[in-house]
Known about the structure:
- This protein is an alpha/beta fold.
- The protein is built from eight helices and eight strands.
- It has a single domain, classed as Leucine-rich repeat, LRR (right-handed beta-alpha superhelix).
Amino acid sequence: MTPDVLTVSSSKHIKAIATAPPQFRKSLHTIGCGYGRVSDAAVANLTRAVPHLKDIDFYDTHTLTDKAIISIIRNCHGIERIAIAGSDRTPGKVKCRGRLVDVMEDLTLAKKLRHLELWNQMLFIRGVERISKARPKLAIVDGVTVGDSMATRVVAAQASGRYMHVYLGGHLDFDLDYICKVADYVW
Length: 187
């Protein structure tokens, strides 16, 4: 039996997945990757090889740029959630500008995308707002956090004076139910 969720830690692991037998690749729906250096090119190879991914989570990964999100959006038509987190020590390189905004405004791509989480990134807010306006059902989470788990990120972001924004329909919103769902945290 093959897993439907897989966690890896480097571009080398991603290359192994991309070249794995088709039956194994078809069994994957969620991939998590953290604590390693992952390149935009590795994400492009992964999403071409496993185009049916629904959920992809990169944590404590500060090497990815807008190009990684573009690859996911273009290659994974059924993607529902994308999460990319830098760390509280080293911010990520996602910017939300230029080509990424243009690709995200193309509503023929990634029609099921509902969650875009960009933790510890250096975002251009105008780009985030444009994406949010173009995709009103997409919740875009932007925040600075402490800790590794999603629950720790959310709680630390709120409790320690750090910030967390949720954009819905082109506007900054605060939806506690959504935050709880994202954090897998039961209140």
